[in-house]
Amino acid sequence: MQVFFDKTLGNEFAKIYKKFKAIELEDDAAYKADLEFLLKKLVIIDPLESVCEREDFDVVAIDGSGADGLISLNDIGIHLLTAAFAADKTSFNQGTTKQIDITPPICSHPEGILRLILLREDKEKEVWKEFESFIEYNYGEKLMDIVFRIIKSIVTDEFTKQHPNKAVPKMNSEATIRMVAIQLKFKLYKGAFPDYSTWMVSPKPNSPRGWFEQFREVLEYALAHSLLNSDIHFKYLFLDGSMNMLLSPGQNLPRLASNYLLKDINEKALDKDTCVIAVSKTTTFPFIYRLADDLEKKLGSEKKWYFRVPSPARDKFALNILKDRPHIPPSYGVTYLFHFSSEVPILRIDLDEKWWKEKIFDNDKKKEKQNEIQMFKEIDWLARDVRYCGYFFDLAFAHNTTIVKFSERDVVADQLIDYFAENGENPKMFIHPRKRLGLR
Hints:
Low-confidence stretches: none
Radius of gyration: 24 Å
Order of helices and strands: HHEEEEEHHHHHEHEHEHEEHHHHH
Strand content: 15-25%
Distance between the termini: 13 Å
Number of strands: 10
Shape: globular
Mean pLDDT: 89
């Protein structure tokens, strides 16, 4: 269909713009009140010099991609998954970084991982079995062991929060964990821990795209897990995305398998003194575009600043514009908005709450601010590459490595079809009907 500007399209533009302005005006008063609060809490940082004397450290970033529906036959789909990383050592006295030579055992090539998965529609038990095997093979642990360990950790943290001066009771079984949770009025899902496939939220059996996303996220966390287990100590580990945890209303237990892997990564990162930073480029934070415009007018386009988003549970206060977004900040996470360059929009980062409480939080708010500034100065320095000014260049490198182009996707699909043909299968059966008909 050829799209060209005419009266019909002009009318569509007008309708959409009218709805857009209605949404903006509806929350205008709330936004202005929040802007006033934000300006009081916003912290402007003086950046580090590009060349300076500072203790060097190692940093790594991870991103994932792939191609769902690489080839298909009836209800069978084969999907391509990729995850890549970029690791560097800072060299502050030279104003540059040096690539770290590391290839974790999980990697199928120097920069990351490539995996193929086969899924059939309407096979719920089958896909869960495949999912469990995929986690164990790539993450190196059974999902059941991770689930048990993380639920125990969550309940332990809640006990310490409610009873800071009491010894944590032993919790060596599901029954003892539930007993402590009941005493704390901490709500866990009723389904037994080993029956997680019945109480975890998962895509429908006939939703291969949804399962593809679940597998892809697992692969990214598996790569992070492998890097954390390496001999190299990374001060910062960047992930693409957010730390949102899916919790059902009235429950304190995450409902996605990937949530448990993310929590596990953060627990192990804390033990290794590594800060996990989840970076959102396209955050769903409301009015972010207007916020960027207003702050650039007030502060200047090149001011570097950050702002911690208050949490109702932690700060007894929430921004008005977040009243319909209880997942910001995420459960078990701390969220900041920050701005390093006019070339890049306002970005969001999420930190693990336990790490934040140990490494950033302080009853002395001056010290807490110093801790924040130290972190933001360092991560700002990691966003100075001229190609990606204002954005973390290792994340950009990881993204560029992991992304699967359409041409590359076709090459892998053709090679897979050739392999099937060599083993006696009819190659035409695995070629998409659109392609066989010459349609794009």
